[in-house]
Design brief:
Length: about 90
């Protein structure tokens, strides 16, 4: 399948410089660059490996607190707000 892609002159000039530096044509450079980009290849891990990674990730849930106990004390927050609203400055 053949497709055409329109690039700005600036982008194409940059592509030409990178391709020339690698000793490739712009088309060859793009193909090589896409072939090396793991983010474009998809995830090749097995379902078991993916589940293990999910479980490791989930083990961090709640592991990091806000750093201040008052941040999670709703009654304390309410009392602080009540005092602040009652203060006439």
């Amino acid at each position: 399948m053949s497709q055409q892609l329109t690039l700005s002159d600036e982008v194409y000039a940059d592509l030409q410089r990178k391709a020339a530096a690698a000793g490739l044509t712009p088309t060859e450079w793009v193909i090589a660059a896409l072939g090396q980009n793991d983010a474009l290849k998809g995830d090749s891990r097995s379902p078991e490996q993916l589940e293990e990674a999910r479980q490791r990730f989930r083990s961090f849930a709640g592991a990091f607190g806000p750093g201040c106990a008052a941040d999670i004390d709703n009654e304390g927050i309410d009392a602080d707000l009540a005092r602040a609203y009652a203060d006439e400055y």
